[in-house]
Amino acid sequence: MVSRSRDEEMETGRNIHHKRSRELQWSNEASQELLRLRFKTLRALFDEADTVADVHEAWGVVASRLNAMESLEMEELDPVKCSDQLTKLRLQWQDSNTQLHLMMAECFGKQQERRTSFNRMMEETMQESSPKRRKQSEPSSVSPVESQEETPLSPGPAPVSPSAVQREEHIEMSNLQAVQQEPVSVEAQADEEEFPREDEIMRALEKRSEQLERLAQSHQHLADVTQKLMEALVNQ
């Protein structure tokens, strides 16, 4: 009778440990979402936490966010389970080849695709507004002048008077002066169009500078998180 009760107790203990191990199984996607929520999306909650209750409440928000993600297909999470998983990831950083910073780089790297597409659009915009493309479009605007210059004069009657010849010479001189003056106006118009194009280039460069600054801030943010994790490992 005593041996039977001991066997039942051992079997019950094995069942409890089996259930615990199943509850603590996290997929890589779930771990990445945990890191993203803890160190990026909800980082302000942890930075502003002053008491243990505040930290527990912040972990509660993380757990509720993870529970709302049906794609993770995990059992009901609570603040303790989420905190324990972060501790487990820190141990993996120290004890195995699955380094924590690789997972963090992967989960934070989703915005790099948006940055790459943004940079590509900026480069295309700057190429379209480059001076070479504007110079290629200038001959089309001068073509009416050339067509006017090549238009032959209509032939007049065979005998002409000297006054008619003088009038024709006067008309030819006025046409020649108009042809000589019109390229200047075309060049002036091109110069006037140059300034708004330069403003567009400057605005594009300013946007590019702001994007690079945000990228540097994200790298600094990742470095700060890594430093905090390393300090936590040293303090342990």
From TrEMBL:
Amino acid composition bias (Polar residues), ranges on this chain: 174-183
Biased composition regions of type Low complexity, renumbered to the chain: 138-153
Domain of life: Eukaryota
Region (Disordered): 122-198
Protein name: Uncharacterized protein
Species assigned in the record: Phytophthora oleae
Lineage, opening ranks: Eukaryota, Sar, Stramenopiles, Oomycota, Peronosporomycetes
